Amino acid sequence: MDAVVLDLDGTLFDHRGASRAAVADWVRASGLDPTPALHEAWHDAEERHHRAWREGRVSHEEHRRRRLREFLPPLGRRVGDDAALDVEFHEGYLVRYRANWRGFDDVQDALAALAAAGLRVALLTNGVREQQHAKLAALGLTGRVGPVLTAGDLGLAKPRAEVFHAACAAVGADPARTLHVGDDHPVDVVGARAAGVRAVHLDRHGQGPVDEPERMTSLRELASFLR
């Protein structure tokens, strides 16, 4: 093995935790209780519309607006025009999301294992440049994860094979001698393998699939996959 490509959200950065905390605070600010149903509604809208952006069917701004068009009515909030939705997303959700940015406590161990193994490292994320680089800065990881490739810059997103190949090229590694690590099994694992890249599933929440042979529940286990 020559290189490891790391995912960001859900792998190094606790997107789920930050999102849940932001939604809870936002809902309370609307005078409501942040019930499990509301959290699930936000998560479902995010998953569906973010996929539409990854697949190039909508712009990044429009995918955010679509999430709000679904989520605001249950809060008893009016759905305004595009400009109003953009303001709502930034002032209602995004500022709270940023206030809750955290990394996972196993990241430093993983980076130490990669350094000890002498492997080249890159980061590949299905996000946009400004936000993903800001996350890395907040986590103290700027300059520590090698080249950073975002879907926004590439114009394509995982699980497209070209994206994995771009990450391998960025560190001068053959796909067959590269390992991809990510938390989204269909995107990060199935997609990587289809591109000829070895992959290990980071299953932090035990959601499976349980029959996945290349699986870990913490980045502290990464060293065992580097040997």
Could you explain how this protein is built, in words?
- This protein has 227 residues and is α/β, with parallel strands linked by helices.
- Helices cover 50% and strands 11% of the residues.
- It has 2 domains: 3-14 and 102-225, Rossmann fold (3-Layer(aba) Sandwich), CATH 3.40.50; 15-99.
- The protein is built from 10 helices and 6 strands.
- Strand 4 (178-182), helix 9 and strand 5 (198-202) form a beta-alpha-beta unit.
- Helix 1 packs across helix 4, helix 2 packs antiparallel against helix 3 and helix 3 (60-71) crosses helix 4.
- The longest helix is centred in the first third of the chain and has 19 residues, at 36-54.
- The radius of gyration is 18 Å and the shape is globular.
- This is HAD family hydrolase.
Summarize, please.
This protein is of the alpha/beta class and 227 residues long. The protein has helices spanning 15-29, 36-54, 60-71, 82-99, 107-117, 129-138, 151-154, 161-170, 185-194, 222-225, and strands at 3-6, 120-125, 148-150, 178-182, 198-202, 215-216. The chain has 2 domains: 3-14 and 102-225, Rossmann fold (3-Layer(aba) Sandwich), CATH 3.40.50.1000; 15-99.
Mean pLDDT: 96
- What share of the residues lie within helices? 40-55%
- The CATH topology name of the largest domain reads Rossmann fold
Q: Helix and strand succession? A: EHHHHHEHEHHEHEEH
Number of domains: 2
Round the Cα radius of gyration to an integer and report it: 18 Å
Which CATH architecture of the largest domain? 3-Layer(aba) Sandwich
For the record, what CATH class of the largest domain applies?
Alpha Beta
Percent range for β-strand residues: 5-15%
Mind summarizing the main beta sheet? Answer: 6 strands, parallel
The CATH homology group name of the largest domain:
HAD superfamily/HAD-like
How many distinct helices? Answer: 10
The separation of the N and C termini measures 8 Å
Q: Can you count the beta strands?
A: 6
Structural class: alpha/beta
Pfam families: Hydrolase
Organism: Kineococcus halophytocola
Cofactor: Mg(2+)
EC number: 3.1.3.-
